[in-house]
Amino acid sequence: MVSKYIFYTIDAVKIDQKTCFLHANLLFYVKCDTIINVLYPSIYSYSQDIPKWIKKDGIGLALILTLGFVQEFDRAEKANVDLYSLIQEEPMPTGHNGMDALLAGLIEWSCYNKKLLVPSWVNKDRFFAKPILHAFDTIGKTQYTIAHTPLAFFRHGVWIEKSSLQYI
Description:
By secondary structure, this protein is α/β, with parallel strands linked by helices.
């Protein structure tokens, strides 16, 4: 019988009939070395992880890993997953106002690109950065960043270059 554990970064917990591990924001269920199901992370699940990422390595790591949602959202679309199911639940507070605003901007921007209705939770007060979050602050590039920030992020008080939202 295969040992049954869920691996979440360093922690392991017993679960039913499958072994789980987290790798690059993907939760894989495996049994006998075969991937049998891949779960697509919701924005709520990202909000649960952000405080851990900030505590471990600061805001920079949290920004990078959170932006991985763009790739996961595209991957979910290709797999015909109901995209709205990944964004409809309001994220839990992350403990960092700028990261809460980033989540809302990310969802608003993703919905615009996928022609989806934007969930109403993005308009709640806690999803607007105070003060402005200047993601990946680069000395001498502030004006460039402001000029190239998608409107959805700008509206939420997050300055981030559109190129930071692309993946290879």
